[in-house]
Amino acid sequence: MFDKILIANRGEIALRVLRACRELGIQTVAVHSTADAEAMHVRLADESVCIGPPPARDSYLNIPAIVSACEITGAEAVHPGYGFLSENARFAEILTEHGLKFIGPSAEHIRIMGDKITAKLTAKALGIPVVPGSDGGVSELGEARRIARDIGYPVIIKATAGGGGRGMKVARNEAELEVAIATAQTEAKAAFGNGDVYLEKYLEKPRHIEIQVLGDGKGNAVHLGERDCSLQRRHQKVWEEALSPALNAEQRDIIGNRVAAAMRELAYEGVGTIEFLYENGEFYFIEMNTRLQVEHPVTEAITGLDLVQEQIRVASGAELPYAQSDITLSGHAIECRINAENPTTFAPSPGRVDGVHFPGGLGTRVDSALYAGYRIPPYYDSLIGKLIVSGKTRTECMMRLKRALGEFVVSGVETTIPLFQQLLAEPDIIDGHYDIHWLEHFLARNA
Ligand code: ADP
After folding, report:
1. The ligand 1 atom nearest the CA atom of 237
2. Residue from 320, 205, 214, 204 nearest 274 by CA
3. Beta carbons of 161 and 194 less than 8 angstroms apart
4. Is 85:61 a contact under the CB 8 Å cutoff?
């Protein structure tokens, strides 16, 4: 096992990793930008190193500074959290070249899954069902027309290098296709420096269902059930739950076992998530995230596993000590992502947090780096905390969530807490009847 781990992240996820390390008896090194000198992850870590000025490209994405911080402090491994360098294959390689362990999959696996076309082809070859579409990039309009006619309109044009829901355009007919392709290419070039796009059948009313996997890099892998992340705004998840209200045990076993078998075949190391759209009883692979996800706590709640500790154990060379039959999924859990934003316009609301009160009690977890007097910097994303409730049933979770949101106080900045309180009064949410477009429609009605 490692003696000292550097956490290359900030905010709630840096705290999350720090807590896992501490419970394993591992020393922690925090890194931070000058804007985060007073942040909670810096205060709680055993040591900290300032790695640059506020913009992420000069600090949290500054690979030489992070490698130097490891060398100065004697950290043996780096946990990247999510976002920032967590899916940067080159970063994983550079760490290896310096004799440091990247806590996550191999650079090769990150690279395969980081390019959406290669990821889709790999998934297909591993027997995972994919969305019908072009088998590769599409650059020429004639070819795009042929493919679209073949799979049928509507189609979605997506950036090969895409992420964060950007660079996607829908075309409902041939007339819209030309504009959609040109716009998607321009946006992709601007956002990712790579204008390559591909085509997929646009699913009208799917749910977003993703399978959590864990492998040890030695050919052992298990799945830990699914999360339903259909409630999204601008393709960004807002509310996540495990298990999905839309699946039964048999459907879960079929897709879960197929994905776990694929991960064994890849000899995948660490945690990962295979994302699917789910419509009319069919699963369609959209992408794989080769890292810990924001919504991992709902899976922890139904499995009793600490996913970050599991990541660290397999990174240190341990074999998975359990088989699929040892994994039990029990109860229900829901996570709300709470942002410092206006709950109606979603305009960011950085600034000083005057007061904080977190809810507590049975089945109530808050992952947050906030404290009274903390100044939320304007440079990073606006996630300020996650409220995770768990219980024996979904109904129990809904009551618990309502109770916990009522106790949650953050003063001085605006938060999205009122949005979740509104959602809890909606019959579709109460019944679990929602698809990936539900939230956008709801917000449009209430604008
Ligand atoms: P990103 O990497 O940018 O997050 P994804 O491929 O994971 O992109 O897609 C993000 C979201 O976009 C999905 O959760 C879904 O809401 C929507 N989406 C993606 N592909 C399709 C599709 N073929 N049909 C309908 N919606 C889609």
Report:
1. 14
2. 214
3. yes
4. yes
